[in-house]
Design a protein that fits this description.
Elements lengths: L2 H12 L6 H11 L2 H4 L4 H6 L4 H8 L3 H10 L5 E5 L7 H4 L7 E6 L8 E6 L5 H16 L3 E4 L5 H11 L4 E4 L13 H9 L1 E5 L11 H12 L2 E5 L6 H11 L3 E4 L10 H8 L3 E2 L3 H7 L25 H8 L6 E2 H8 L3 H13 L3 E4 L3 E4 L2
Parallel strand pairs: 3-4, 3-7, 4-5, 5-6, 7-8, 8-9
Antiparallel strand pairs: 1-2, 2-6, 10-12, 11-12
Helix pairs in contact: 8-9, 11-12
Length: about 375
């Protein structure tokens, strides 16, 4: 059997309605290979309890969608992994409902490295965003790969923190691997592909659908040794990720917050329910039983980091445009020509380094 033929059948099964991971596993135990499932008579499939729509999809696979996925995989750094592939991430393989197929854009070897998922609010406080950058940066420097969901807020800050450390980061998407959501994170997604990977169980061309994001969250939790929640309301999607981590027997950690802050109520509730209260990076390492000086060898490549004593030219140029009086972001956008989201990310780094501070009205002020 040609390996590409086997992959075609895996892709066809992955897009078959009503055929979840657990049911597919039982079919594979019965028939051995994916292609054998397509050779079964209708009555046999019906006797196995498959729904009519599932049997119809197996009888008439959408080979055009399969070919679309195969064409995508021909592009640089684009990979398709099945449960039968030795490169399939072992942590994810052992959850209750592992995706039968993973689409990976980036460095495929990143998936097998020790990971910590960091998730939280899409509308964090400045302090919450700062904590996400600090924790992800320090943990990435120790060799942990930072995994999150590419969302606005804490997710994006976690990815950015890992990147500024020259470490590795993985973003799990709720769309096809050829689409970036939210669009504001297109530049960030490009950096992640170069220093990690974007992962999705949805085939190329899959648009944004609300029901996809809880499915994404189970992968965020499933890839990692544990999940750290930084700021979350009581109804935050981050708590869905934490619940999946609990179901998958992974460690759950949360940073406590002010009892009057709505963004802290989800984290405080998790701690009351038994999540590990985290105040330092050492707390995370202890929870994960990773107390050695480095989790793994140092990251393979170190990019120039704006956290060094010497700011890069781009950061120096921005700093010189910030007054010692309150300076609005809009003025910096006009003066630099950079997108607002890039300016916001750079300002966060400058604030963490002690060069600027936030002031009333959403402005920034230079302090040294």
């Amino acid at each position: 059997m040609n390996p590409s033929d086997s992959l075609r059948h895996w892709l066809a099964l992955a897009q078959t309605p009503g055929l979840g991971a657990q049911r597919l596993e039982r079919l594979l135990e019965t028939f051995g290979e994916p292609e054998e499932i397509f050779n079964q008579p209708t009555v046999h499939l019906r006797n196995l309890g498959l729904e009519a729509r599932t049997i119809e999809a197996i009888a008439h696979p959408q080979w055009d969608r399969v070919e679309q996925s195969l064409c995508w995989s021909q592009h640089p750094e684009c990979h398709i992994l099945t449960l039968a592939d030795p490169s399939y991430p072992p942590q994810l393989r052992h959850i209750a409902s592992p995706p039968p197929v993973l689409f990976v854009h980036g460095r495929i070897e990143t998936l097998t490295k020790p990971q910590l998922s960091i998730v939280g609010s899409r509308n964090p406080t400045n302090n919450g965003r700062r904590l996400a950058v600090e924790f992800s940066r320090e943990l990435a420097m120790l060799g942990l790969t930072i995994t999150s969901g590419l969302a606005l807020g804490i997710d994006g800050a976690a990815h950015q923190g890992a990147l500024t450390a020259g470490g590795l980061t993985i973003a799990v998407g709720g769309t096809g691997p050829d689409r970036v959501y939210p669009a504001a994170h297109k530049k960030l997604a490009s950096e992640i592909v170069s220093h990690g990977a974007i992962v999705s169980e949805f085939p190329p061309g899959t648009p944004v659908r609300p029901q996809h994001f809880p499915r994404r969250n189970r992968i965020v939790a499933g890839l990692a040794l544990g999940t750290l929640v930084i700021e979350a309301t009581r109804k935050s999607g981050s708590l869905i990720t934490a619940r999946y981590a609990l179901e998958q027997d992974r460690e759950i950690m949360a940073i406590p917050g002010d009892i009057h802050n709505p963004q802290a109520k989800g984290c405080n509730a998790l701690i009351r329910q038994g999540a590990r209260l985290v105040e330092t990076v050492e707390d995370v390492l202890e929870t994960l039983n990773l107390l050695s000086p480095a989790v793994t060898s140092e990251p393979e490549t170190r990019s120039a980091s704006p956290f060094s004593n010497e700011l890069t030219e781009e950061y120096r140029d921005l700093l010189f445009k910030i007054d010692y009086a309150p300076t609005p972001i809009d003025r910096l956008v006009d003066q630099t020509g950079l997108p607002a989201e890039d300016i916001a990310s750079m300002l966060l780094i400058l604030e963490l380094e002690g060069h600027v501070t936030t002031v009333a009205g959403g402005c920034y002020q230079r302090i040294r």
